[in-house]
Amino acid sequence: MFEETQGTVKNLAGQVQEAVGNVTGDAGNQAEGKVRQLAGKAQEQYGDALNQVRESAVSNPAATVAVVAGLGFVLGALWARR
Prior knowledge:
The protein has three helices and no strands. The chain is mainly alpha-helical.
């Protein structure tokens, strides 16, 4: 939830910055605004994915433990090969 909210704020700040750049004719502000918007959208999507994982873990804890154990086994096997 926090990541999504923070991403939305970044997205809105980027829109404002781009609009200011458009009004003043400052290409640097326009570009920074667009970059900030993209970063905000990416952070929103990350937050959404994180929330889905949390909800899945709460609704199905046995599967979550199985997945984590499997990942631990694979990472352990890869680490042992070094």
